[in-house]
Amino acid sequence: MAAGARRAGLGAAVTALLAAGLVLALGPAEVGSPGEQRGHVWVLSAANWSLVLQGQWMVQFYAPWCPACQQIEAAWENFAKESEHLDITVGKVDVTQEPGLSGRFFVTTLPTIYHAKDGVFRRYRGSRTSEDLRGYILERKWEAVEPVAGWKSPSSIMMHGMAGLFHFSGWIRQIHSYFTGTLGIHVWGSYAIFILSTLLIGLILGLILVLIADCLCPSKPRYREEASVELIERENAELTAVEEVEEAEEFSANELEEAAEEKEDISDGEDGAKSSEEANSSEDGSEEDSAVDEGSGTEETEDICEPQPTDSETQSSVRQRKSQVADNGL
C-alpha cells in the first residue's frame, strides 16, 4: 500500500511537471488586462469565463507568438465587428496569460476556436476567414457538429481539475522566470531544481497518503496477531486431538469387528465339526440298521426257502409214529 501511494504521489508530481513544461514552451507572457472588452472582442479570463455559459459565443484561444494566430487576427476582428448583426458575442483567450482557462478547454493546438450556445460547446474546424465564420453562424452549420462530451465540457468537474493543474503550471513558469531572470540561474539549473522538487514532492505526497491510509485503515495490533496465532495453533491442536480420538475409535471398532469375525469363524468351525461327527454317527447307525435289516431279510428268505412236506411224506411219518407207539405198548 505504501509503495502504491508513493507511486501515485510521484505520478501526480510528474504530471504537474509536464504541464509546467508545456507552459514554459509557450514562451514569455504578454502584458495585458484580461477580463476587459477590447473593441468588439471580449478578453476572457478565469474570472469572467462563465459568461460563455449564457447566450451564443465564438471564442478563440491564441498566443501572441503563434504565426497562425497572427494571420487570422484581422479576420477575427472583422468577424467581431459584425457580431451585433449576427446576435453573437466574440471573445478570445491568451493562453500565455490564462493557462488555467486553456486547460479547462483542453487546448492542445493554436489557434483553437470554440462555438458555445447556452453552455453547449462545439469545436470549430472550418476555414478561418471572416466570410466562413459569418456563414457558420448565419447558416447554423454548428447544429451539424457533434457537441463536446459532458465529461470533457469546460463546466465539468474533470475539466475544473484540469484547469487547476494548468494554473499550477503557470505558477511554476513564474518561478522559472524568477530563477532565470532575477537570480540569474542557468535554464538547465532551473530544470534540475524543478526535477528535484518534483521527486521530493512526490515522496512527501506518498508519505501523506500512507499516513492517511494508516489512519483510515489501521493495522491490527501485534498482540492481536499473536493471540490469533495462538488461537489458530490451539484450534489445530484440538483438531488433531479429535482426529486422533476418531482414529482410535475407528481402530478399536475394527479390532472388535475382527475379534467378532474370529469368534464367528471358530463357532462355525465347531458347529461344522459337530455336524460332521453327527453325520458320521448317523452314517454308522444307518449301516448297522442296514446290516440288521439284511440279516432279518436273509432269515426270512431262508424260512421262505424251506420246502413244505408233501402228503405222502406226512402219511409215512404218521405211520412210523403209530408203529413206534404200538411197539412201545407191547
List key phrases describing it:
endoplasmic reticulum; TMX_domain-containing; transport; redox-active center; Glutaredoxin; 10 helices; disordered N terminus; alpha/beta; six-stranded mixed beta sheet; 9% strand
Describe the structure.
By secondary structure, the protein is of the alpha/beta class. It has a domain at 42-158: Glutaredoxin, CATH 3.40.30. Helix content is 65%, strand content 9%. The chain is built from ten helices and six strands; from the N terminus they run H-E-E-E-H-H-H-E-H-E-E-H-H-H-H-H. The chain has a six-stranded mixed sheet. The chain is elongated, with a radius of gyration of 63 Å. This is Thioredoxin related transmembrane protein 4. Residues 1-25 form the signal peptide. Its main location: endoplasmic reticulum. It is found in: Endoplasmic reticulum membrane.
Summed over residues and divided by their number, the pLDDT gives a mean of 75
The CATH superfamily of one domain is identified as Glutaredoxin
Shape: elongated
The share of residues in extended strands comes to 5-15%
Spatial extent as radius of gyration:
63 Å
The helicity comes to 55-70%
Question: Which spans of ≥5 residues are poorly predicted at pLDDT below 50?
Answer: 1-34, 296-307
Order of helices and strands: HEEEHHHEHEEHHHHH
What is the number of helices? 10
Give me the count of strands. Answer: 6
The CATH class name of one domain reads: Alpha Beta
CATH topology of one domain: Glutaredoxin
Query: Structural class, judged by helices and strands?
Result: alpha/beta
Name given to the CATH architecture of one domain: 3-Layer(aba) Sandwich
The span between the termini is: 163 Å
The main β sheet shows up as: 6 strands, mixed
Major sheet: arrangement of strands: 1-2-4-3-5-6
Main location: endoplasmic reticulum
Organism: Terrapene triunguis
Membrane topology: Single-pass type I membrane protein
Protein name: Thioredoxin related transmembrane protein 4
